Amino acid sequence: MRTIPYVLLDVFTPRPLTGNQLAVFLDGSTLSTEEMQALARETNLSETTFIIPPVGETTRVRIFTVEEELPFAGHPTLGTAFVLRGERTEVALELQVGRIPVRFESRSEGTYGEMRQRDPVFGTIHDVTEISRVTGIPLPHLRTDVPIQTVSTGLPMCVVPLTSLAALQGLRLSWASARAYLEKTDARFFYFVTRETVNADAHLQARQIFYNGEDPATGSAAGCTAAWMVRHDVAPSGQRVMIDQGLEMRRPSRIHVRATLSGDVVTDVYVGGFVVEVARGSYTLP
To answer: Which residues are known catalytic residues?
Structure first.
């Protein structure tokens, strides 16, 4: 029998039992891809990660949802780097999209980490009427002064700006309908955002619906949105702003983002937040 240890974290929060949960398996070297996928289904979290030894300056990590392996995801990157950091202030993960560095610092609230994501690729601008049909969002609840657009910093997201907090809170998305549309496009998931927020210090409030329900915090989508914001004059270039997510599902998460615009080119996409460990355990497998 094999004993496979894991750590359970809450990411994008300094407070246990909030933010986005993450299970990090400390040694995936004896696990097959099929076993990793089965363990991800067993944890039933948004994502589960597996560290592949050897552990060094750059460590290979694999990321799984309940349905598939992902080339990149935000809260798994931040959380796994937190586990690996030891006494270091910078950790780098080798993911399918390449090397992603994460820097850490101690603050009064706890341990804060910030990753630099890949430079963004801007994709399809989606038709507002079609998005209204697919999502069930009434047309007047979709903003038309900024585009609904696919952006990728490693995982392509369709950023959908809504006109109000009420529209965001009233979202009733069918994942089956959304998936049927997304499979025909260059985006993997929708990320819904609004400038109206519950917390006055947040720049945007966001939601993401996928596979097994709602995601409390989506760091990959937040990076895409940071790039989208500076490209379309929703946030100032180089300024760190905050995205609130998870409020509707009682898992409040705070994601800090920034990106730089030079001409029409966006670079230096950073996504950060706090991480807290909440449990340790192990699985016993044949």
So the answer is: 47
pTM value is: 0.96
C-alpha span between 102 and 34 (Å, rounded): 28
Instruction: Kindly list the distances between the CA atom of residue 213 and the CA atoms of 3, 46, 174, 198, 209, in Å, as whole numbers in the listed order.
Output: 30, 9, 10, 22, 6
Tens digits of residue pLDDT in 164-204: 999 999 999 988 999 999 999 999 999 999 999 999 999 99
- 99-142 confidence digits (pLDDT tens): 999 999 999 999 999 999 999 999 999 999 999 999 999 999 99
- The torsion of the CA quartet 73, 74, 77, 79, rounded to 10 degrees, works out to -130
